[in-house]
Design a protein that fits this description.
This protein is of the alpha+beta class. The protein contains eleven helices and nine strands. Bound molecules: flavin-adenine dinucleotide.
Length: about 375
Amino acid sequence: MQRDLFEEEHLLFRETVREFLTREVVPHHARWEKDGIVPREVWKKAGEVGMFGFTVPEEYGGAGITDFRYNAVIVEEIIAAGASGLGFSLHNDVMAPYLLGLTDDAQKARWLPGFVSGELITAIAMTEPGAGSDLQGVRTTAVREGDHYVVNGSKTFITNGINADLVVVVAKTDPDAGARGISLLVVERGMEGFTRGRNLEKIGMHAQDTAELFFDDVRVPAANLLGGQEGQGFYQLMANLPQERLSIAVAAVAAAETVLRTTIEYCRNRTAFGRSVGSFQNTRFVLAELDTEVDIARHYVDRCVRALNAGELGVVDAAKAKWWTTELQNRVIDRCLQLHGGYGYMLEYPVARAWIDSRVQTIYGGTTEIMKEIIGRSFGF
Ligand SMILES: Cc1cc2nc3c(=O)[nH]c(=O)nc-3n(C[C@H](O)[C@H](O)[C@H](O)COP(=O)(O)OP(=O)(O)OC[C@H]3O[C@@H](n4cnc5c(N)ncnc54)[C@H](O)[C@@H]3O)c2cc1C
C-alpha cells in the first residue's frame, strides 16, 4: 500500500542521510564492531550534516522544526544501512525531549549547542542491576547538600554509556516517597566520582557501547536538576516514553522491511531441485504472510508518527506499536533467515546480522510483557 507519510523535504533529507551513511559509516562499521564502539568523530560529522536535534530552536544551533518524520527518516536509513552501532536514535528521539522540554534557559544554553553539533553525546540511565522494568525500584540516591546533590549508586545496560558526555540519571531524592521521590539529574563527563564500568559484551549490536555506570559521592550542581522541581522524575519519564517506544517501533518496521526485501531477492536467485527457491509454494506463502503483516504494521506506525506530531500519541497506543512491531520484527527476520538456509546463519549475510541485532528490541524501552501490562491496565479491571 502506498505510503504517504513523507513530503518532498523529508525525501531530500533522506538523500542527505543516506549519502552520509554511505560515506562515513558503512565502510567502517565492521571495524567499529570489532572495537565495540563508534568513534566520537562520527558524531561530530553527523552533526555537521544536520542529523541531530531538529527540534532544537535555531538560537541553539538546531533547525527549530518539530516534526518526528525527520527522526523517522534517520532511524530508517540507519537500519537500511545496517549501522546498528550508531546510538543516534537514543540521542535524537529519546534524549531531545528531556533536554528541550525540561530545561531552563541556562541549561539550554549549556547543553543544546553541543547536542546539535554532536560534541555532547547523551545517554539516559534508568536501569540498575536490581531494577529494570520496575523503575520505582531504583536504588540510586541523590541527597541535597546546599547547592549540590550527592549521587550514589550504579546503573547498567546504558546505551552510549562509554561515549556519553551528559547522562540523565534517574535517582531517588526521597526514598520513602515512591514515585514522587524520583528525580532526574544530568551528570556530566568528568564529574568527580562518576566512572564507567565495562562496555558490555552483547549478542548483537557489537559497535554500540552499552555500559555500566558508577556514581560514588558525585557532587552534581542543583542547577543540573531537570524540570526545576524534585520528585517529578517518574512522571517526566512516563511522559517521554511514548516517543522512545515509537522510535523503536519505527526501527522495527524498517528492519523487517529491509530484511524482507533482501530475502525476496535471495529467493529469486537461489535454486534448489532445479528451480528457484521462490517458486516453492511454501516460500511464496511465507513471504506473502510477512509482507502483509509488515505492510499493516507500517501503516499503524505511520499513523502513530502523525499522532505524535499532533501531540496526541498516548501511552497505550505507543505500547501497542512497540510490542507488536518488535515481536513482528523478530518473527519476520527469523523466518527470512530460514528461507536463506545455511547462508542465513553466516554473518556475511545481512539477515544473520539483523537476526542478532533485532533480538533486544522486545526488551529495551520496556519489555513486551510490560507493554501488555500497560495496555491491559487501560481496561480498568
Ligand atoms: C542493549 C540494551 C540497551 C539498553 N539501553 C538502556 C538505556 O540506554 N538506558 C536504560 O536505562 N536502560 C537500558 N536498557 C535496559 C532495558 O530497558 C531493561 O533491560 C528492560 O527494561 C528490562 O529490565 P530488566 O533487564 O531489569 O528485566 P526485568 O525487569 O528483570 O524483567 C525480567 C523478565 O520479567 C518480565 N517482567 C518484569 N516485570 C513484569 C510484570 N510486571 N509482569 C510480567 N512480566 C514482567 C520482563 O518482561 C522480563 O521478561 C538496555 C538494555 C539492553 C539489553
